Amino acid sequence: MSTEEKSLHFIEQIIEDSLASGFPQDKLRFRFPPEPNGYLHIGHAKSICLNFGLGLKYNAPVNLRFDDTNPAKEEQEYVDAIKEDLKWLGFNWTEELYSSDYFQQLYEWAVAMIKNGKAYVDSQSSENMAIQKGTPTQPGVDGPYRNRSIEENLTLFGGMKNGDFPEGSHVLRAKIDMKSTNMLMRDPLMYRILHRHHHRTGNDWNIYPMYDYAHGESDYIEQISHSICTLEFVMHRELYDWFLDQIYDDSKVRPHQYEFARLNLNYTVMSKRKLLQLVQENIVNGWDDPRMPTISGLRRRGYTAASIRKFCEIIGVAKRENIIDFSLLEFCLREDLNKTAPRVMAVLDPIKLIITNYPSDPDGSGEEWLEAENNQEDESAGFRKVPFSRELYIEREDFLEEAPAKFFRLSIGREVRLKNAYIIKGESVVKDAAGNITEIHVTYDEDSRSGSGSEASQRKVAGTLHWVSIKHALEAEVRLYDRLFIDEAPDSHKEKNFLEFMNPNSLQIVKGFVEPSLAEVKPDEKFQFQRLGYFNVDKDTTEGKIVFNKTVGLKDAWEEKGKKEENLLMNTQKEINKYVKEKDENNAILILNSVIENIKSIDNYSLIIQTIVKNIKNDNNSLLFSNLILHYSDKVKIKDIEVEALTKLYSMSLKSQMAAVRILAIQNLQNDLNNYSVFETQLSEIKNIEKNEKVLKLLNDLKL
Predict the structure, then answer these.
(1) 270 is in an annotated binding site
(2) Is 390 marked within a binding site?
(3) I need a surface site. Which of 293, 298, 320, 331 has the fewest CB within 10 A?
(4) Which residues lie closer than 8 Å to 358 by C-beta, 6 or more apart?
(5) Whether 483 is catalytic
(6) Spacing of C-alpha 644 from chain mean position
(7) Which residues form the Glutamyl/glutaminyl-tRNA synthetase class Ib anti-codon binding domain (predicted)?
(8) Is pLDDT at 570 greater than 50 in this prediction?
(9) 82 is in an annotated binding site
(10) According to the annotation, is 612 in a ligand binding site?
(11) Known catalytic residue: 272?
(12) Rounded CA gap, 156 and 165, in Å?
């Protein structure tokens, strides 16, 4: 029986080609080089799995090297967090190294470059340097200090090192080519003055190397064979090689840079700067907030290392950028937790249920203990005992006094099974003065106990409910986490702050009740709350307080929500057609109100924008739909629509034969001061020929 071998990704193929060309396998060496200026996020996990995975595959060393060349942003806290994340993910590094280990060597190489006429001290302002650098279509020009003498450059650079000059007064630049088509080659910075305390070297240095200079040289010092970066460093490769050219000794391994596509995940942001902003502005509760895409946040939420490694394996290593659906990450998590998480019962929105014919004291204790399976996916997980009594909590949504035909839960006159227990039948309810149900009264079939083998126990009923016995229930704080953003790409919209797309419902805290088997839970233990989802014990748990984080639901609620919103917009467009055809004015108003409510309920910003633009076409109903969305949706503003599309919408709408379209277009223009003046002449012309009274009144109100 043959097994299909997994195909190599392109980085593996490069390594295989290197080995086939005679490169010694014992010279293979890789590195993971984080900058310690923030916590690692899920995007870094892809790079981690790639580099350490190559080390495992080729039995080659992998260094953990901190590129700590910017003391203004780097802290020991970040170093410690990165190491913890790597260990949690299951990877061990060969050596723990720092670019700061090489500061003296980097300085000596810079001095040698000055002596060789390959570097000079520039004393211009950063603004002037930027102007002289030119543009992608215009070459740069030489600055006034480019041809300083070697002696003057050495003196100034030594003074920079000694702390003789203020920050910003001088920089050291490589002397390459100010007319290069690659702007990064136009005399890039090598050193800047920073009078800052470094987390490892203290106040020993007053100058610090730039990333582009330090990175490749550090690779060379460590004899890294394959330096693997993300695609944004493609243009940096020429500079990486140029710096190596200045120091390379052909008796040593020369590193080569290769680029792969970074991980782009929808419904989140991957910028460390933006993640830091969320933390600093207390929008989230620290770097390990379970809503954050940081590895520590995912860990606290209840993600497993195995699920993240599996996710990175599935998305693979490619040369082209693409956006991965967050649902895939959640799928990998469910797959893992389904195999390992014990099943327990918890009720998060409780309502009291009383079994009126259940004996108050059936065996002298007022309760009985039923057997429940811990995990049907794991035969070795065994069984546990759960207490059952006359008074239970069930989920409020699992009961309707009067239910439709397809409601497969509890209602008056209908039967359901209580998980691991008995079949019950709804009989009556008790309500408070406001008419809210406070108790559900049911009867049970005493012969129907699950697993008893009786004829009654085999009877099929429409649904099964989870529950907890009130007298045995443990109170727990349950934090219901959702995605942090309501838009697929919150930081991709022009002139929109990514914070505008925060999900107001990303965290809800409820008081729930759980079965007594959870009395001794420890932080990071994971459970499936039956019918509700997977939950993780939070680190805030203490002896007197249990705290659970919702990790992920049993189903992809966001995919369902997305499909529902897409379907709702499609159906709303059909309602537009009904509205246009409706002859009865009262019925038409009812249909229009329904359309407006549907539009207001859509949260997906990108979907709304796409729908507006897609319906800008020579069709009255489509134009009406676009204008209605633009007018009534509170998720988009007029400035969010591209000017060309907006101009086309106004122009076509004002010419529409349908008065409702013209009215909405005029109303939208009233709210669009930027475009109103552009269409003022056209509005005046329309006013002279307009026959519809409502349109005419609007135009008169404009005082054209």
Answers:
(1) yes
(2) no
(3) 320
(4) 389, 390, 444
(5) no
(6) 31
(7) 341-445
(8) yes
(9) no
(10) no
(11) yes
(12) 9
- Please classify residue 453 by burial: count the beta carbons closer than 10 Å to its beta carbon, then call 0-12 exposed, 13-18 middle and 19+ buried: exposed
Is 35 labeled as ligand-binding? yes
Is residue 419's pLDDT more than 80?
Answer: yes
60-77: average pLDDT: 95
Q: Any binding-site annotation on 263?
A: yes
pLDDT value of residue 2:
40
Mean pLDDT, rounded, for 119-140: 96
Q: Each residue of 571-581: pLDDT tens digit?
A: 888 888 888 88
List 262, 384, 419, 578, catalytic entry: 262
pLDDT-wise least confident of 139-148, 161-170, 632-641 = 632-641
Among residues of the chain, what percentage have pLDDT more than 90?
73
Mean pLDDT taken over the chain: 92
Here the tokens at position 201 are: 């070297």
Say if residue 45 carries a ligand binding annotation.
yes
User: Which residues, 6+ apart, have CB-to-CB distance to 9 below 8 Å?
Assistant: 316, 317, 318
Q: What pLDDT is stored for residue 704 in this prediction?
A: 56
DSSP three-state, residue 526: strand
In whole angstroms, give the CA distance from residue 649 to residue 668. 10
Within 10 angstroms of residue 41's Cβ, the number of other Cβ atoms is 24
466 carries a ligand binding annotation: no
Helix, strand, coil: what percent of the chain each, to 5?
40, 20, 40
Q: What residues have CB less than 8 Å from 485, skipping those under 6 apart?
A: 267, 268, 269, 498, 501, 502, 503
Q: Is 545 assigned a catalytic role?
A: no
Residue 199 is given by DSSP the state T
**171-174 vs 189-193, strand pairing mode:** antiparallel
What pairs with residue 474 in β-bridges?
Answer: 514
User: Mean pLDDT over residues 603-607, rounded?
Assistant: 81
The annotation status of 425 as a binding-site residue, yes or no, is no
From residue 530, give the alpha-carbon distance in Å to each of 184, 333, 463, 595.
56, 16, 14, 37
Query: Is 318 one of the annotated binding-site residues?
Result: no
What's phi and psi for 681, nearest 5 deg? -65, -45
**Better-scored residue on pLDDT, 244 or 591:** 244
Q: List, as one string, the DSSP characters of 226-280.
A: EEEEEGGGTTTHHHHHHHHHTT--TTSPPPEEEEEPPPEETTS---HHHHHHHHH
| 421 DSSP 8-state letter | S
- Checking DSSP bridges between strand 415-418 and strand 526-529, what pairing results, if any? unpaired
> CA 379 → CA 326, 340, 342, 376, 404, distances in Å?
31, 11, 11, 7, 38
> What is the model's pLDDT at position 703?
65
Q: Is 120 annotated as a binding residue?
A: no
Q: Are the beta carbons of 307 and 332 closer than 8 angstroms?
A: yes
The predicted-structure confidence for 500-557, as pLDDT tens digits, reads as follows: 999 999 999 999 999 999 999 999 999 999 999 999 999 999 998 999 999 999 987 6
- 85's enclosing H/E stretch is helix 76-89
- What one-letter code names the amino acid at 301? R
Residue among 133, 161, 272, 414 flagged as catalytic = 272
Distance CA 48, CA 14 (A): 18
Which of 29, 31, 35, 300 is labelled catalytic?
Answer: 35
- Average pLDDT value for residue range 144-169: 97
Alpha helical stretches, state H, 615-678: 620-632, 643-654, 659-670, 673-676
- Nearest in space to 507 (alpha carbons), one of 529, 477, 544: 477
